[in-house]
Amino acid sequence: MKLYHSSNVSVLQPDIIHSRDYLDFGKGFYLTSIHEQAVRYAQRFIRRQREAWLNAYEFEFNASEWKILEFDSYDKDWLNFVADCRAGKDVSDFDLVIGGIANDKVIQTLDRYFEGELSENETLGLLKYERPNIQYCIRSQKMLDNCLKHIESRQL
After folding, report:
1. How many CB atoms lie within 10 A of CB 65?
2. pLDDT grade, residue 104 (50/70/90)?
3. CB within 8 A of 84, min separation 6: which ones?
4. How far apart are CA 154 and CA 156, in angstroms?
5. Pairing of strands 29-31, 134-138
6. I want to staple 31 with a disulfide (CB 3.0 to 4.6 A). Which of 3, 23, 90, 150 is the partner?
């Protein structure tokens, strides 16, 4: 499958080392299968007067060879996993996590939950109407090296 990664640089050889901590699915290399989503995300670099690059990859893997966690919706399991990752409390060893991205509206709801303004049930009630924009987080360098092949990098 074809996946995209937005950045302020061309990323020919992705690695885990340059990932930030405390992201939705933990430290990893984040991609999306939705071209428009990747382009929209790249616009944030342009707004900051930086270069914006859309990097494309081919991602092929045998699911039985890797430890994978997949979320189909913004549910309690997704919420708890994101909360743990953002708090630096995730100790899982998944190679790949697939699920909804925390877009602007979702982030606002999550922030209210993390600040104690919303209960878990209230948060899930607000999120249940949101259609997830899927993100892929490759969390092991071994999976990056074996399964993700660079296709092209295009400056926007």
Report:
1. 11
2. low
3. 90
4. 6
5. antiparallel
6. 3
- In this prediction the pTM is 0.88
- E strand or H helix at 5: strand 2-7
* Whole-number Å distance between alpha carbons of 49 and 57: 25
Of 35, 19, 16, the residue nearest 141 (C-alpha): 16
What does the pLDDT look like over 35-86, one tens digit per residue?
988 998 899 899 999 999 999 999 999 999 999 999 988 889 998 999 899 8
Regarding beta strands 68-70 and 96-100, do their DSSP bridges make them parallel or antiparallel, or are they unpaired? parallel
Q: How far apart are CA 127 and CA 143, in angstroms?
A: 31
CB atoms within 10 A of CB 27: 17
DSSP letters of 131-154? PPPEEEEE--HHHHHHHEEEEEEE
DSSP code of residue 64: G
Beta-bridge partner residues of 143 = none
Give the integer Cα–Cα distance in Å for 41 and 118: 27
pLDDT, the chain, mean: 91
Residues 6+ apart with CB under 8 A from 4: 31, 32, 33, 34, 35, 37, 38, 54, 55, 56, 57
